[in-house]
Design brief:
Length: 387
């Protein structure tokens, strides 16, 4: 397979000036992305990686990140839409592309024209793509998903013995893959994971008996592949870990990762704040002690979650601060202590500042979100600077 995507050129941070110096920016460390990918590949071999780049590479930038991932040696990409798959093809990527969501109702001929695979996560989708492919007179590549215990997407594993023979008789489908999703987020999931492995192996055996020999089989994410060395499949689906973020606190120690995105904003205004007084005025969140109220150019219109007010964390001068303050539409006021902050000093909302790292899972668990949601919510209004 030929991987032709080129990563976007580096924009040196010293070149940031003018308007960019007065807005929030998301720095994307492509070197960290490469190192994370190489490290995960080493840990999960001999399996390859299906790199999940859904939702514009989890908000990091689809094409620049896909270029680095392809150069690092991933086997294929999982995308959230046909449009993302076509974008990768136009950028020159010739390998496996699996459209994981948002394809029902879209022109199926695009799967044929751009050599994309469809993720069939229900019997309706299996029949839908079979009927559409038959009408077009050409086969469409499909990855069939069974639910082996996670309970989210996929046909019930108990019905595999009935459904697989029917799938095998569908002449307009190329069954390129069979997959499931291992429910592993913390050590307590180990027993459930072992049961899922047994079920998935049975599904693969049933598929073989029906004459189905899919090229790709995948069950685990990168953390699960490390915890379960015997996990079946020749691919590991890896998402947020590629971008340097553990999916949860419980698995944070399984992989050595570097955060790829650092979201930061300059201080634009400083006001003296007194204990019990609102930040920045009496009708807003009260300061817990004497200090400083600072204004940064980041708010809910930029995709920064308003629910992080009073619950979030941020980095200032290399130290963690609790997010007392008010998150507005286009700006945020937060409270800091110590020597008076200076205009232009940086507040880091997640990622690295000096030797300190603020992980996405630390913020996500405070607002009942998933780590990847924080970066995918981030608006295109926030410039991505590739370094």
């Amino acid at each position: 397979m030929t991987h032709l995507i080129e990563a976007k050129r580096e924009i040196p941070l010293k070149a940031i000036s003018g308007e960019l110096a007065r807005v929030a920016v998301a720095e994307i460390n492509l070197g960290a992305l490469r190192r994370n990918t190489e490290h995960i590949l080493e840990r999960v071999q001999p399996r390859g990686i299906l790199a999940v780049v859904k939702w514009n590479g989890y908000g990091h930038g689809l094409i620049p990140c896909a270029g680095i991932l392809a150069q690092a040696g991933v086997t294929g990409f999982g995308v959230s839409s046909v449009a993302e798959g076509i974008e990768l093809r136009k950028a020159g990527y010739a390998g496996l592309i699996l459209v994981m969501t948002d394809w029902v109702g879209k022109p199926l001929k695009e799967f044929i024209e751009w050599e994309l695979h469809a993720a069939a996560t229900s019997w309706f989708k299996v029949e839908y793509v079979e009927a559409g492919a038959r009408q077009l007179g050409k086969k469409i590549g499909v990855h069939v998903k069974f639910d082996t215990g996670l309970g989210r997407l996929g046909m019930p594993w108990q019905q595999a013995g009935k459904l697989l023979p029917q799938i095998a008789r569908m002449k307009s489908l190329d069954i390129e893959g069979i997959y499931s999703h291992l429910a592993f987020q913390r050590p307590e999931d180990f027993a459930t994971g072992e049961k899922q492995i047994v079920r998935f192996n049975r599904i693969l055996l049933l598929a073989h008996k029906c004459g189905l020999e899919p090229e790709w089989t995948h069950l685990a994410n990168s953390a699960a592949a490390i915890v379960f060395p015997e996990v079946p499949g020749n691919l590991v689906r890896t998402g947020i870990a590629l971008y340097g973020q553990p999916p949860s606190r419980e698995v944070a120690g399984l992989l050595s990762l570097e955060p790829v995105m650092t979201l930061k904003a300059p201080i634009l205004e400083v006001r003296r704040s007194r204990r019990g007084r609102g930040v920045p005025h009496p009708l807003m969140a009260a300061a817990p002690r004497d200090g400083w109220a600072v204004r940064i150019p980041l708010g809910t219109c930029h995709g920064y979650a308003g629910s992080l007010a009073k619950h979030g964390i941020f980095l200032f001068r290399g130290k963690r601060h609790h997010c007392y303050g008010t998150i507005l539409k286009e700006q945020t006021w937060i409270f800091v202590t110590g020597p008076k902050p200076q205009i232009g000093e940086e507040i880091t909302l997640w990622g690295r500042q000096g030797s300190e790292v603020l992980w996405l899972y630390e913020l996500a668990e405070k607002i009942d979100a998933l780590p990847y949601e924080l970066t995918t919510w981030l608006s295109a209004k926030v410039p991505r600077l590739f370094t």
